[in-house]
Amino acid sequence: MMIDEKIINKIRKVLALTKSTYQEEAQAALLKAQELMAQHGLTMAEIEISQETGKEKQVEDICISEKRRNTWFEKSLAGIIGENFRCHPYAVLGEGIYFIGLKEDVEIAKEVYLYALNTMLYLSNNYVKTNRNPVVSINSRHLKNDYLTGFLKGLRDKFKEQIESKGYALILAKDALVIQTVNEKKLQKGQKSRIVTGGSADAKEAGYRDGKSFNEKQKIIH
């Protein structure tokens, strides 16, 4: 099939608008890009050569959060952000959490991950401080884990609903070069973390609400 360069360039220009700081404009651009790709039977691999003519795509494999010990919620959050920002996350014991993706995608995913992590920790610590009941024998750390579990589920559902309602699936597909880089690295799946919770339904519900309403474009902590 002959690919029309005019259409390719048009879609690239529309995709450039998805980087807008205005959420409504970015979402409209994503929908328009998907509509054009579907209309002309094009894939991301065919149009996503580079935002700058003449330059090849650049895949980065960088540490986004240096940690001697990667907590269960940091790894879970990295999985959610990576999946929704076209990056492949993985953790290295004693080093931290890494993202593999196209340069521009990794930069955005890292920023969103760190902001989401800071927001989640701030809100969970505040919840425990406000709702810890000395009469009820629930360990503070376990109560915090209840909240974090809810937050992560809410965040995951938020992105899932966006994909289903806005039709983002095509846009969020990982680039073929990223997939190739991940396969060549031959990463091994780590052991599943053991999470000890306090069994507080209220904490999970509060966390879920906050995770579901999280807005990666609007900073709530100054």
Automatic annotation (TrEMBL):
<dbReference type="InterPro" id="IPR024498">
    <property type="entry name" value="DUF2786"/>
</dbReference>
<dbReference type="InterPro" id="IPR055592">
    <property type="entry name" value="DUF7168"/>
</dbReference>
<protein>
    <submittedName>
        <fullName>Uncharacterized protein</fullName>
    </submittedName>
</protein>
<feature type="domain" description="DUF7168">
    <location>
        <begin position="60"/>
        <end position="186"/>
    </location>
</feature>
<dbReference type="Pfam" id="PF23771">
    <property type="entry name" value="DUF7168"/>
</dbReference>
<dbReference type="Pfam" id="PF10979">
    <property type="entry name" value="DUF2786"/>
</dbReference>
<feature type="domain" description="DUF2786">
    <location>
        <begin position="6"/>
        <end position="44"/>
    </location>
</feature>
